[in-house]
């Protein structure tokens, strides 16, 4: 089996950084009314700026596939060109279409002169790590000599006011308050657009920051817990999900069936606790010592969770000092499947990493509570 190295990393963030006060200029006003929940949600999540592939007329400027391709193109140089690419593996929550697959669409945008293997990982925040795992296993096994792995999102197009105005109008006709449900509005003020990408190869590159992938682990708790974050469905009283296909087309609009929703109570009850349980299991499986970690990159959806995550990790014997944690959420927002890629790219570009240091990646997914983690060694 081959060793596998992250030899290059790149990111693409569309447009300019957008401040909290500008958000509704891009997303629009539901029912022509400023959100009352926005300030509270932003105060708790601690996000200061984010990126949207939108203009101020609420119109998309780029597709997810185009955002992804622009990140990948930054990997190419005289030592690794578009024509050298053998495997493209992409993870996203927010593909531009149900079919064809996201990776096929990205391949079509890139237009290399040859056929390549493509893989798409769909899901939520772990979709990017699933894509990385596929590339890791392919290079490790010798199936491919290199892999371009990507996490990307274009959430903004899901969050524009027109996607919720039908629901608000329906509530008005029912003589109820025309305010969209908190479970939907919560995520309007959390999510951001962008893409991050890694090049995986069998050999490290001279003169570059190289990270050897030691392992990638995944843990799902769907056998214990109901869905917490979902789209294209509606949650029922018994916790089950009713598919969009079981609703009429009229109900799709009136109930914002395709919007991304989150059960915030379930999130608070389990997201940190199960994350600590998963990481403890990974450390036991791989016989790791928490004192050996030099950097901890944990994807979090909100700065609200920072202290709680440290405490939950410490409670299971994984007490990482504050100075070892690396975050960029406040500056780029929550970019879902791309978040861990973009955080690691920034760390690699920072000049801080030294040979033999250990970098731990931790990614929670609140969809139905799934977690991934990975250990990297600086070469």
From TrEMBL:
<dbReference type="InterPro" id="IPR016039">
    <property type="entry name" value="Thiolase-like"/>
</dbReference>
<dbReference type="GO" id="GO:0044550">
    <property type="term" value="P:secondary metabolite biosynthetic process"/>
</dbReference>
<dbReference type="GO" id="GO:0016746">
    <property type="term" value="F:acyltransferase activity"/>
</dbReference>
<keyword id="KW-0808">Transferase</keyword>
<keyword id="KW-0012">Acyltransferase</keyword>
<protein>
    <submittedName>
        <fullName>Beta-ketoacyl-ACP synthase III</fullName>
    </submittedName>
</protein>
<dbReference type="Pfam" id="PF08541">
    <property type="entry name" value="ACP_syn_III_C"/>
</dbReference>
<feature type="domain" description="Beta-ketoacyl-[acyl-carrier-protein] synthase III C-terminal">
    <location>
        <begin position="284"/>
        <end position="362"/>
    </location>
</feature>
<dbReference type="InterPro" id="IPR013747">
    <property type="entry name" value="ACP_syn_III_C"/>
</dbReference>
């Amino acid at each position: 089996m081959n060793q596998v190295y992250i030899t290059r990393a790149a990111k693409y963030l569309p447009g300019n950084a957008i401040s909290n006060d500008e958000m509704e200029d891009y997303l629009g006003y539901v029912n022509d009314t400023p959100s009352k929940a926005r300030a509270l949600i932003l105060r708790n999540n601690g996000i200061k700026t984010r990126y949207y592939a939108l203009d101020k007329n609420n119109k998309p400027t780029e597709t997810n596939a185009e955002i992804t391709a622009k990140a990948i193109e930054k990997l190419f140089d005289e030592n690794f060109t578009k024509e050298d690419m053998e495997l493209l593996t992409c993870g996203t929550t927010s593909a531009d279409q149900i079919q064809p697959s996201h990776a096929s669409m990205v391949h079509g945008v890139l237009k290399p002169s040859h056929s390549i293997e493509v893989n798409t990982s769909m899901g939520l925040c772990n979709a990017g790590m699933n894509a990385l795992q596929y590339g890791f296993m392919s290079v490790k096994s010798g199936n491919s000599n290199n892999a371009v792995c990507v996490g990307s999102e274009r959430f903004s197009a899901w969050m524009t006011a027109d996607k919720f105005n039908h629901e608000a109008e329906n509530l008005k006709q029912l003589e109820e308050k025309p305010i969209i449900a908190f479970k939907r509005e919560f995520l309007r003020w959390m999510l951001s657009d962008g893409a991050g990408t890694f090049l995986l190869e069998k050999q490290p590159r001279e003169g570059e920051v190289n990270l050897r992938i030691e392992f990638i682990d995944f843990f799902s708790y769907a056998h214990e817990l109901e869905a917490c974050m979902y789209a294209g469905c509606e949650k029922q009283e018994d916790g089950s999900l009713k598919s969009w296909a079981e609703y009429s087309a009229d109900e799709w609009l009136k109930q914002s069936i395709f919007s991304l929703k989150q059960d915030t109570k379930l999130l608070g009850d389990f997201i940190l606790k199960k994350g600590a349980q998963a990481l403890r299991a990974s450390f036991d499986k791989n016989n790791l010592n928490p004192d050996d970690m030099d950097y901890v990159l944990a994807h979090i959806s909100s700065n609200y969770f920072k202290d709680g995550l440290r405490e939950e990790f410490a409670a299971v014997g994984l007490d990482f000092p504050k100075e070892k944690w690396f975050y960029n959420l406040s500056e780029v927002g929550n970019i879902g499947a791309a978040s861990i890629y973009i955080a690691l790219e920034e760390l690699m570009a920072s000049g801080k990493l030294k040979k033999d240091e250990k970098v731990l990646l931790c990614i929670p997914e609140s969809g139905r509570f799934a977690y991934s983690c990975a250990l990297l060694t600086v070469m």
